[in-house]
Amino acid sequence: MEIKHWALVGVLYVAVVIGSYTAITGANPLESTDMHDDHGNGEETHESHDASSTQTEEDENMDHQHHQTDGASDVHTDVSYNDGEVRIQLEDVDGNVPKLEETHEEEMHLIIVSNDLEDYIHLHPEREEDGIYTVPVELEEGHYQAFVDISPEDMAYQVAPNPVQVGTNETGKANLSNEDNWTKEIEGKTVTLEDVEAKADEEVPLVFDMHGENPEPHMGALGHVVIVDEDGEEYIHVHPDSDDTTSFQTHFPEPGMYKIWAEFKFDDDVNTYPFIIEVNE
Fold first, then answer.
1. Measuring CA to CA, how many Å separate 159 from each of 12, 33, 76, 172?
2. What's the distance, CA 101 to chain centroid?
């Protein structure tokens, strides 16, 4: 009887404890389902976090590839000419003014070529106000393509031709011939583009013989090379392989005829040497 008495007291004690716990917490300590569910939800949250992280990494990689491969541009350029001045307006896809990084000592390089690729002008417009750059230049009547060469911070940018009409005269498209002399003399300084077999979508070396002359540093390099295709649509700007050489490496996106302008500085003057090259498949 004494054992039964203590057993009954023990049962009543446990019942009181369970009742008190349930009254305070609203949970039944004898049921483990909620605790298991909480653990299960924790696992789902962890899995969701991992999936989200993976998706973010994939998105970043896609963005990176998108910027590199499809030629999309986050910055719009508008070029106009009036009364001896070129005006360039910049804005991003949201209508904001992009911030530019300095490349080769300048915020902006503006390359203007006539439609027939006979005239070539390399300018450095200055910022007049946020998003507006200007530079004075006298252009003959005719049709031109202007290439705004910039490096916007944290934005994709693809250089594209901006058509500029000066006056009413039209300028026909270029008709380049592969019968070109690859040795040119300007102001007593001779430069030769060494023979090269150029193929589309392959690395093409452009090696210039200075004939014993030593060019001076020009915008942080011993030379600059700008290339435009016959239609005036493709723009390529390359710099030397190193700080002490006049050899360059480039890629041509498509077969066809291209014009090369090689800039070298001698005696404080910049000479621009034009060459015509045929790129094969």
1. 85, 63, 10, 22
2. 11
Encoded tokens for 166:
């000066």
- 3-class DSSP state for residue 48? helix
Task: Decide: 261 and 277 in contact? Cβ < 8 Å.
Answer: no
Burial of 280 (0-12, 13-18, 19+ CB in 10 A): exposed
pLDDT tens sequence across 82-129: 999 999 999 999 999 999 999 888 999 999 999 999 999 999 999 999
Q: Name the region of 47 (left: φ>0; alpha: ψ -120 to 50; beta: rest).
A: alpha
Between strands 198-199 and 269-280, the pairing is parallel
State how far the Cα of 178 lies from the Cα of 217, in Å rounded to an integer: 31
The phi, psi pair for 93, rounded to 5°, reads -65, -20
Q: pTM of the predicted model, to two decimals?
A: 0.74
Integer Cα distance of 89 and 76 in angstroms: 8
C-alpha span between 279 and 103 (Å, rounded): 28
Spatial neighbors of 91 by CB under 8 A, at least 6 apart, are 75, 76, 97, 98, 131
Residues 6 or more apart whose CB falls under 8 angstroms from that of 245 comprise 222
Q: For residue 88, which of 56, 118, 128, 120 has the smallest C-alpha distance? A: 128
